[in-house]
Amino acid sequence: MFNKNIKLVIAGLIIAYAVYQFIEGYIGNGIFLILLSLIFVFLYFRNEFILLAFLRMRKQDMTGTEKWLLKIKNPESSLTQKQQGYYNYLFGIIFSQKNLTQAEKYFRKALKLGLNMDYDVAMAKLSLAGIAMQKRRKREATTLLQEAKKLDKNNMLTDQIKMMQQQMKKI
How far apart are the first and last CA of the chain? Predict the structure, then answer.
């Protein structure tokens, strides 16, 4: 919606007006304005379109997810590095059902840019292992599977990892 730097400027202006309200004796207005400015600071670190895309992804609506992601114009300049990672991660998930070569490109770029949570990194590596396995690159798939297994600390992906290891034995 707004550029990331504009969000910080808006937050700064709101905080300045909140200080003015405190000086004038309107404590309630000042507190409300401080809370309002926190929304813009939050949206600096979490892009609103990526949040909406994750909500669509949760409902298994891939076209809705892609629609929200396409609303981000020029992601290299308007997103932070971690947001770019999640931007590419979501596109990787979308394209994993359409075009494996394109999905592999997006997952690799997401891993290069960085993802915050170990589960997301494990999921990206697991997806890359599946793509490598379908392209008959067994050695790369096994290393990616091992890395995904190490990153899966809550054992949420153990079933998928075991299933993929069984499929690897058949190749």
Answer: 48
What does the longest C-alpha to C-alpha distance in the chain come to? 75
Using DSSP, state whether 166 is helix, strand or coil. Answer: helix
- Tell me the pTM: 0.79
Q: How far apart are CA 106 and CA 89, in angstroms?
A: 6
d(CA 130, CA 96): 10
CA dihedral 137, 157, 93, 133 (to 10 degrees): 10
- Read off the tokens for 31: 């507190």
Alpha-carbon distance of 21 to 9, in angstroms, equals 18
Residues in the chain, overall count: 171
* Rounded CA separation 168/92 (Å): 22
Residue 25 token pair: 């004796």
What tens digit of pLDDT does each residue of 5-33 get?
Answer: 888 899 999 999 999 999 999 999 999 99
- Half-sphere exposure for 3 (CA within 13 Å, toward CB): 6
- Cβ pair 73, 47 in contact under 8 A: no
Give the 3-state DSSP-derived string for 2-63, with helices as H, strands as E and coil as C.
CCHHHHHHHHHHHHHHHHHHHHHCCHHHHHHHHHHHHHHHHHHHCCHHHHHHHHHHHCCCHH
